[in-house]
Design goal:
- There is one protein chain.
- By secondary structure, the protein is of the alpha+beta class.
- It folds into two domains: about 240 residues, Bira Bifunctional Protein, Domain 2 (BirA Bifunctional Protein, domain 2, 2-Layer Sandwich); about 100 residues, Rossmann fold.
- The protein contains 15 helices and 16 strands.
- The chain has an eight-stranded mixed sheet with strand order 1-5-6-11-10-9-7-8.
- Helix 1 runs antiparallel to helix 5.
- It is elongated and about 95 Å long.
- The protein starts with 14 loop residues before the first helix and ends with a helix.
- The protein binds adenosine-5'-triphosphate and magnesium ion (MG).
- The site of adenosine-5'-triphosphate has 18 residues, from strand 6, strand 10, strand 11 and helix 11.
Amino acid sequence: MSEITAIRGMNDILPSETACWQFLERTVAAVLSSYGYDEIRLPLVEKTALFKRSIGEVTDIVEKEMYTFDDRNGDSMTLRPEGTAGCVRAAIQQGLLNTPQRLWYTGPMFRYERPQKGRQRQFHQTGVEAFGVATPDMDAELILLCAQIWRQLGLLDSMELQLNSIGSAEARRAYREALVDFLQARVEQLDEDSQRRLHSNPLRILDSKNSQTQSVLDDGPSLEDFLDEEASADFARLCELLQAAGIQYVVNRRLVRGLDYYNKTVFEWVTRELGAQGTVCAGGRYDGLVGQLGGKATPAIGCAMGMERLVLLLLEHGQATAPPAADVYVVAAGDAAQGIALAATQALRCQQPQLRIVQHTGGGSFKSQMKKADKSGARVALIWGEDEVAAESVTVKSLRAQNGERAAQVTVALRELETTLCAALAP
Ligand code: ATP
Ligand code: MG
């Protein structure tokens, strides 16, 4: 029979990688908690209209990346391509917007993209959203929080913070007009994608990776000159706060982000160590979105980090990947021994819950079980054979003799198992 394989771009995360994932997830959660953020868990599927209304109809995500389908009732739903929309939907629906709210979530997102290193169709993001504060101290907090995560992961030196302000909706409208006027006269010099975007989403042209397009833009209007006073002042204040906190950044006036809902501050954390997929975390302010999704007007800012890209970075930095070997391997030859061993090990797990104890399963001779114990990488074997059963004892055997010395082995009464084992495992 032919083999059924996974869907392209939807990867298995193997046991050899999960230790790294767990380290990442644990570290991120601990830092978020230390800043007073609370976790929220959201559905993977939402009504399609939610993403169309929030992300914007003429964005890459909505135009060509969403997994959208009708359920059996004929209602259109979509596998979430990002987390902000669902988080805002939940915050409105569950009445979480009365006071400043600091929330985070983590989990899989789905986008129909061309799979490559650091780009999958099912990928994972951890997102952070802060509601109810319009002032740039909130922007600074979010950026400091990211920096703290990178520091705790040992990745701070690999990251560059790029920062921009895209101002109010009116400022962007005026800028868009000036930009389109300017580019219209030079349309034949633009790359194909940018020509198409000129009429659908001209600000995205600033993002173009095409060097000729970029040099055309060099003489074009700058978004900075169109910023309203409030946005300029807030941006200046944010820069001041970051400097005071010792956070380095680069102002990138062409950073606009691909989602419609942003205003004022936008930022990206970028690394040079991952090639083309260098943006590890991206975010910005979205003061209009809560109102746009039917809630009472509430300022907000958020960001999302790509977990696969962080894992790639951690692996490049030599973060240990193999799952830890077992501490203890339990050998029990014969039915009576098996019963006693199972019960004794269960008790041991209550007394020493941090130990990784692997019970031999599937029977076999004493010799073959001992071979498995040696191979397991465990430091100690607990052995129940006929003699131990008869004497109500257990043998504790060190499996990793150091400097060629003979492996130590003692047989003790069952009630001395815990202390003997702990002594054998002590460094
Ligand atoms: P890109 O320009 O790389 O496509 P984006 O602007 O579409 O990124 P966002 O929607 O801002 O990305 O998502 C935030 C972060 O999530 C990205 O910076 C990246 O780290 C990660 N991310 C986004 N799309 C993918 C994907 N398809 N596979 C893996 N990670 C992704
Ligand atoms: Mg993208």
